[in-house]
Amino acid sequence: MTRTVDLNADMGESFGDWTMGNDAALLDIVTSANIACGFHAGDPNVMAKTMGLAVTKGVGIGAHPGFSDLQGFGRRRMSLPPDSLQNIIRYQLGAAQAMAKSAGGSVRHLKLHGALSNMASQDPEIARLCYQAALDLSPDLVIVVLAATEMEKVVRDLRCAWAGEIFADRAYNDDATLVDRSLPGAVIHDAENAATRVAKMIDAGAIITESGAQIPTKIDTVCLHGDTPEAIEIATAIRSRLQREDIRIQKF
Amino acid sequence: MTRTVDLNADMGESFGDWTMGNDAALLDIVTSANIACGFHAGDPNVMAKTMGLAVTKGVGIGAHPGFSDLQGFGRRRMSLPPDSLQNIIRYQLGAAQAMAKSAGGSVRHLKLHGALSNMASQDPEIARLCYQAALDLSPDLVIVVLAATEMEKVVRDLRCAWAGEIFADRAYNDDATLVDRSLPGAVIHDAENAATRVAKMIDAGAIITESGAQIPTKIDTVCLHGDTPEAIEIATAIRSRLQREDIRIQKF
Amino acid sequence: MTRTVDLNADMGESFGDWTMGNDAALLDIVTSANIACGFHAGDPNVMAKTMGLAVTKGVGIGAHPGFSDLQGFGRRRMSLPPDSLQNIIRYQLGAAQAMAKSAGGSVRHLKLHGALSNMASQDPEIARLCYQAALDLSPDLVIVVLAATEMEKVVRDLRCAWAGEIFADRAYNDDATLVDRSLPGAVIHDAENAATRVAKMIDAGAIITESGAQIPTKIDTVCLHGDTPEAIEIATAIRSRLQREDIRIQKF
Amino acid sequence: MTRTVDLNADMGESFGDWTMGNDAALLDIVTSANIACGFHAGDPNVMAKTMGLAVTKGVGIGAHPGFSDLQGFGRRRMSLPPDSLQNIIRYQLGAAQAMAKSAGGSVRHLKLHGALSNMASQDPEIARLCYQAALDLSPDLVIVVLAATEMEKVVRDLRCAWAGEIFADRAYNDDATLVDRSLPGAVIHDAENAATRVAKMIDAGAIITESGAQIPTKIDTVCLHGDTPEAIEIATAIRSRLQREDIRIQKF
Q: Which of B103-107, C57-61, D182-186 has the lowest mean pLDDT?
């Protein structure tokens, strides 16, 4: 049986004169790109450039909306009323669709960013509001969810196209949440180790937690990072190792 | 012969907790609404509310993009490279299209705001860059231009749908520019007088300047204002007077 | 025995082209002005104008710092690390001091705004961080606290100059918090009634709650509002009524 | 005769999660730091950190105010009325003074940033407005000016403390303006060459232009850059070379 998986990464996170990450290098590794939409990072120029590169390299374009908080990089939780939550999704998705179209592509998927993602993974109402707003605009959009969280329940219920995401480089607790970064072993720095874990989880069709427990889920895509030269190296190594494991890397 | 004209106004210019203008009242007077897109004014909530009202009242929705400058309300000139100029148009138009679709409508026209409009009315290259970026995304978009300016030459050349706009309440110089606000007679405060001028210009198919000269042009829409209670009164009076002149008020 | 009280109001909350409130009218009523510092509202021009008026009218100038969140008017809670919290206080206080000095005055007091104030009234650590940062810069600053809250405990502990504040137009719960706006009777719209309550509380040296309970506290200043024409009327009426009650209105 | 010169660099230009330059390395090379004030770059946290380092390393702290334009990094020209121009200087200088005081230091000098600096170097009225606003707040402030420009005339006329600045790595035209970056030889990439030029200009008490002409001026400080690893190397090499030329490096 051929196993396939998508590799995704957040990008387009530069802003004005400030550069973040190495999008050109990452786009040679991943098959899906989650591109910031100007609220927590990115700006119209950065979006145009990143989407243009993604089109050239055949990488799937995703909208990556977040809270309107440049200084906090969208990582500070904000309480928004339901309407406002939906409006920031609509606005950012629409902007991303226009930028993608101008670059010769289109927005295939949507993945929430930062604090908004954290909140939606815990509160199904927030997930539902965000996803519904996006799907009303674009019914075929693939929603990328943190596998085995409230997000997954919501997209199953919405009966929309969706992709379940796991992290290559993070240990999991038994409730499918990530082990806190401050704890030993929370972040996996060894690419071989990370790739072996991913292969095992794909085979098992389950998240494998630190304790060895298995949480059955749909694994469609693996999140990689590219914000440091070291991160690019690890992402490259994971990709190579997955290929040697006979896992086909392709867009979901 | 039946004469018809569209009435337009800028709106959706509130931001967060700050209110500007009286959009609900204006939407009972105009047939086209130029709605700010969040760069110089407006935010996703304001756009959603204003567009929802426009749909309910059958008023045509327009994107009204400007420079990214909330504090200066988009009235400060900025020099942007050609790519950046096009990207801010794409981004704002895309956001407006999504907000309009979510409100049950669609973006029919585009009118540039503030300093960006002033610059485009003088520099055909700026007008061309902005309009081309918008038309690539939405080929049927109606471009609203300041009649008899460089903008008009550009849209004629682009062979796109367009509407020529005159001001009801401003006196014109012989080169079709507006008489400077600081000069006596520059702003017409009397609604009857304003409406009479509009009717004459529509009949003449020309801008009639302060000196009495005529500048032939296509007059499709008249710009009204609604930022003060007095402005709403004037706009109402102009509408009534035009109707008494047997000019039909309808969307371009 | 002569009773005296200060009247304060938030102001300088316009931004760019957006006007909020009627600062000129309010400055004829209050004795202390809490002036926004550009993060949640206000900008350098608005600060200059408001402070200039305050100096002319002999009203005490206060810095009114908040979260950096124009769109949410500083009313959305944000979790900031302790250092960041202190840095936003330092920055805004410094800016306010410079603007006040340029206007011929100086910053006498500090009052936290919106969500930051709410958080500090419940969490003494947040109050302490903010107040300490301000007092390190300006040891004689008067800290305005919500009377009988955690804020009061903190300023007593810091042994700094402080003023206890009550609201003229809001009903209190038995724990000194405000009755939720959504409940009947939460907001007092009758100026006579509001002024009578204030006089009683000043006499009692205590907050008098809806149930009639008394919470002893130091009452130095009464918060008034001026964001609507009606609010200005109520503020004026409260001031007159307090004077008729032989309560002297003067700066703390 | 001992010759002395100050070395300065712009820093504190990171913002939120975005890093720019290597301030820690630069602070080992320069004697004066021009620190962004949050309008075009920098934020309260970045200011606190950079100023703390400057105090530790004995480097003079300067306010480096610019236009309120994060996306354009303060490099886009804006037309502001005289009052507004003064208010943005006051606000930024006040914020910088508070941050410096909290870090255990104080603001010794002021240097304008980006487009605001370019405009002030050509238009003496703009220079005068900015400098006067700053000096009214802080009469002993040292104003750093581009040597031999309109700025120099203004500070001579204001009779304030000032320092004349030259660039180590840029060729000069005969009118003391910089050779356009697009022309060959405009930027000097060789550290030895750059240092030799600086030494010659200090000896001559004049800017030496590309044609060999001399423009007499006061040279107090040399601007270095540190935005790339290469720039840090060049800055280090210039410093060493100046020391070998028996030029003492010390704060103005």
A: D182-186
C29 pLDDT tier (thresholds 50, 70, 90): very high
Residue B45 contacts A where some CB pair is shorter than 8 Å? yes
pTM of the model: 0.94
What is the C-alpha to C-alpha distance for residues B251 and C22, in angstroms, rounded to an integer? 38
**Chain C residues close to B70, C-beta within 8 Å:** 15-16, 70
- All residues of chain D having their beta carbon less than 8 Å from the beta carbon of residue C93 are 98
Task: State the Cα–Cα distance between residues A101 and A47, nearest whole angstrom.
Answer: 11
Q: Do D76 and B80 touch (CB under 8 A)?
A: yes
Chain C: give the shortest CA distance to residue A200, in Å. Answer: 37
What is the per-residue pLDDT for B2? 66
C15 and chain B: CB distance < 8 Å anywhere?
Answer: yes
Q: Say if the Cβ atoms of C73 and B17 lie within 8 Å.
A: yes
Judged by CB atoms within 8 Å, which residues 62-91 of A form the interface with C? 68-69, 71-72, 76-80
Nearest CA of chain A to the CA of B181: how many Å?
34
Report how far residue B29's alpha carbon sits from residue B235's, in angstroms, rounded to the nearest whole number: 7
| 8 Å CB contact of D137 and C101 | yes
Which single residue is written with the structure tokens 């920055």? C91
pLDDT at D2 (0 to 100):
66
Please name the chains neighbouring D, where neighbouring means 3+ C-beta pairs under 8 angstroms. A, B, C
Residue in A closest to B89 by C-alpha: A44
- Which amino acid, C157? D
Phi, psi of A249 (to 5 degrees): -90, 115
- The DSSP-derived string for B141-189 is PEEEEETTSHHHHHHHHHT--EEEEEESSB-B-TTSPBPPTTSTTSB--
Span D80-103, pLDDT tens digits: 999 999 999 999 999 999 999 999
Strand-pairing partners, residue A162, are A143
Structure tokens at A89: 């999704």
Q: What is the ipTM metric for this complex?
A: 0.95
Inter-chain touch B78–D77, beta carbons under 8 Å: yes
Residue C105 has pLDDT above 90, yes or no: yes
Three-state secondary structure readout of A133-157? HHHHHCCCCEEEEECCCHHHHHHHH
Contact map slice: C 133-172 vs B, CB within 8 A: none
Would you call D87 and C48 a contact, using CB atoms and an 8 Å cutoff? yes
The verdict on a CB contact (< 8 Å) between C91 and D133 is no
Each residue of A74-109: pLDDT tens digit?
998 888 999 999 999 999 999 999 999 999 999 999
**Rounded Cα–Cα distance for residues D158 and D160 (Å):** 5
- Distance of alpha carbon A152 from alpha carbon A141, whole angstroms: 15
Average pLDDT, rounded, for chain C: 94
Q: Which residues contact D115 (CB under 8 A, 6 or more apart)?
A: D66, D67, D74, D75, D76, D77, D78
* Calpha distance D152→B25 (Å, rounded): 55
pLDDT at C44 exceeding the cut of 90: yes
Long-range contacts of A133-137 (CB under 8 A, 24+ apart): A133/A85, A133/A86, A133/A87, A133/A89, A133/A90, A133/A93, A133/B102, A134/A63, A134/A89, A134/A90, A134/A93, A134/A110, A135/A160, A136/B102, A137/A90, A137/A93, A137/A94, A137/A97, A137/B98, A137/B101, A137/B102
Residue pairs spanning A and D at CB distance below 8 A: 31
